[in-house]
Structures are given as C-alpha cells and as structure tokens.
Amino acid sequence: MHRLLVLYPEPTDPDHFRDYYVARHLPLVMDWPGLLAWRYSFDVAATEGESPYFAAFEGDFADAAALAAAQASPHGRRLAADVAHYATGGVVVIHYPVRDGAG
After folding, report:
1. CA dihedral 97, 43, 70, 4 (to 10 degrees)
2. Can you tell me whether residue 49 is helix, strand or coil?
3. Per the database record, which ranges form the EthD domain (predicted)?
4. Distance from CA of residue 102 to its chain's centroid?
5. CATH number for the domain including 59?
6. Structural domains of the chain, count
7. Can you give the residue range of the structural domain that contains 91?
8. Which of 11, 20, 25, 96 falls 20 to 30 Å from 88 in CA-CA distance?
9. Measured between alpha carbons, how far is 93 from 56 in angstroms, rounded to an integer?
10. Do residues 54 and 44 touch, judged by C-beta distance below 8 A?
C-alpha cells in the first residue's frame, strides 16, 4: 500500500476552510480513481507545544504507480487545482509506502 499525506498549516479563514473542504473538496476526493481508503481530521495536535498543522488528510492507494496515475488523471489535476480555493495557509504533500509492523 502507498499513502498520500496532506498537511495543512493554519489558513487565513478556518471557517471557510472547514466549510469548503467538507462541502466541496471531499466530494471530489470520493470519486478519485484508484483511491482505496481515505480519512481526514481538523483536530491535529502535537505531542509538545502547538501543532504547525490545522488539518490532515490521508489517502491510500495500491502502490506508488496507482498514486501517480491518480494524480496525473484529469480528476487528480482537478483535485490539485481545487486546493487553492481553501488552503490559504499553504499545503505540505508527502507520500510513502506503508509497511505493516510486526508484533
């Protein structure tokens, strides 16, 4: 499995971010080709001090190739373009293979 992690720093208008994200962006996410599972949170906390992030999103894909195909698809490009409508604080996007732990 391959995971896409999107971290959102504090936006200029947190209420607009929440409203737009839930009503407009997440419905687009639901139709993203190749997406196996997804989750998000507006309750991002740090173990010490204040979190540098306002929200987080995780999306799971079969492998790195499936993620790359999803991002390159017309729908993936539409999702990426939509981020500017709510993420006024910027965005950090990373991805990585997920390994199961033993024990």
Report:
1. -20
2. coil
3. 10-88
4. 27
5. 3.30.70.100
6. 1
7. 11-97
8. 96
9. 10
10. yes
